[in-house]
Amino acid sequence: QIDTTHSGKQKEARVGGAKVDGYRPKTNEVLELHGCYHHGCPKCFKHTRNASPPDSPPETPEHRYEATVAKSCRLTELGYAAIEMWECDSKRLMTEEMFNHTETHHTIA
Fold first, then answer.
1. Model pLDDT for residues 54-71, shown as the tens digit of each residue
2. Mind telling me which residue stretches traverse the membrane in this protein (predicted)?
3. Is 26 helix (H, G, I), strand (E, B) or coil?
């Protein structure tokens, strides 16, 4: 069993002054699942990189992406091993059963 601190355990993981999706203290690993919309996925937002979404101007997908990259770089510079994946990639890798489970069982936030 790998001990991981994450919000699903009702503990917010914070490392280097930043919120992260998960943290493994024994291995010093930071786990991040980047939501495509909130982090400006370059694959999902190819043609609208600099367009502000109506719900959050003036943040563009490019701005969100740059903030995500900066956070990842900062954590790496502090000595954490970052394990990261984009939401679209995780969905592509899931089996149909896994996908259906994640869509019907919401995590505790």
1. 776 678 889 999 999 999
2. none
3. coil
Burial environment of residue 64 by CB neighbours within 10 A (0 to 12, 13 to 18, 19 or more): buried
Amino acid of residue 47: H
Contact 33, 26 (CB under 8 A): no
Q: Which residues contact 10 (CB under 8 A, 6 or more apart)?
A: 108
Is the distance from CB of 31 to CB of 24 less than 8 angstroms?
yes
The rounded distance, in Å, linking the Cα atoms of 31 and 85 is 9
H/E stretch holding 61 reads helix 61-77
- Beta strand extents in the chain (DSSP E only): 5-6, 13-15, 18-20, 22-24, 29-34, 81-86
* Dihedral sign for Cα atoms in the order 35, 38, 39, 44: positive
Of 39, 30, 42, nearest in space to 80 by CA: 30
pTM of the model: 0.74
What are 29's strand-pairing partners? 24, 81
